[in-house]
Amino acid sequence: MCQLRLNTQHNYLTKVVCDGRLVYDKNIVLGENSRVLDSGTGTGIWATELANEVPDSVKIYASDVSNSEFPPTHPPNVHFSLASVTSLPREWSNKFDFVNQRFLFGALLVEEWPVALSEMYRVLKPGGAIQLIEMEPRFPVPETPKTSQIMKVTKEATDGLGLHIYVAENLAELTKGAGFVDIVDETKRLPLGKSWGEIGLQGAVAIGGAYRNTGALLVKNGICSSREAHDRLVDDVLKEWDEYGTHFPCKLVCARKPV
Ligand SMILES: C[S@@+](CC[C@H](N)C(=O)[O-])C[C@H]1O[C@@H](n2cnc3c(N)ncnc32)[C@H](O)[C@@H]1O
């Protein structure tokens, strides 16, 4: 189910954030023998789809702290490995032409973000580029009661863990702080619910599913009384999205390591 949700989320984000492209910046050409990293890859779907678009000689590395979502089969030029975005292998220094990192806003601690950015910088070749995509899980339009409530309880739980779920706002600044240049900072829109048609339904599966997955944490921390109560809240949130055609902001940051 998690694989299905993550792969639905991939199709959705590719469409609504990257205008249907895996690599948003049209100036980036991944030619023969290029090296690409998908950091925090999840199911590896971005990496495996990229393999179909680039020459076979392009080596695509897909890394994550967990291999639980790695696919059973994949193209031969995609290499899966275990690595944290905060401590990529030493031998990867100056290795990659392009690094993609997407949707780790619920995964990294406040103090881990600058480390992750400096690791991406280290493993890029001079002139190499990054693509970062992170949802801003606040400022929904319109802001409706149940959506406000789920944002509030989720923030309370993630604050308790020291996670930086509002990192999207600081993404360009963090990128600059790590030494990147030519920073392009765009705000895209995540449409949610059936009034947006098929894409809004995909968004509800992806983002609503992510909220549903936080249920156990919220109950454990005493923020929600039970899984059933949390599930009911998520159901009400999904109804609001269907009714009001809600959308959330999402940041897309592209940048380069200086030559
Ligand atoms: C929401 S999923 C996104 C997966 C993928 N980037 C995508 O967009 O489909 C977050 C992923 O980050 C991974 N993750 C969490 N902390 C990490 C870390 N410190 N280093 C690498 N991956 C991490 C999780 O295991 C999970 O696969």
From TrEMBL:
Domain of life assignment: Eukaryota
PANTHER family: METHYLTRANSFERASE, METHYLTRANSFERASE TYPE 11 DOMAIN-CONTAINING PROTEIN
Any one of the GO BP annotations: methylation
Keywords: Methyltransferase, Transferase
Name recorded for this polypeptide: S-adenosyl-L-methionine-dependent methyltransferase
Keyword Methyltransferase: yes
Coiled-coil features, chain-numbered ranges: none
A Pfam match: Methyltransf_23
InterPro entries the UniProt entry points to: SAM-dependent_MTases_sf
Organism taxonomic ancestry: Eukaryota, Fungi, Dikarya, Basidiomycota, Agaricomycotina
Gene Ontology molecular functions: methyltransferase activity
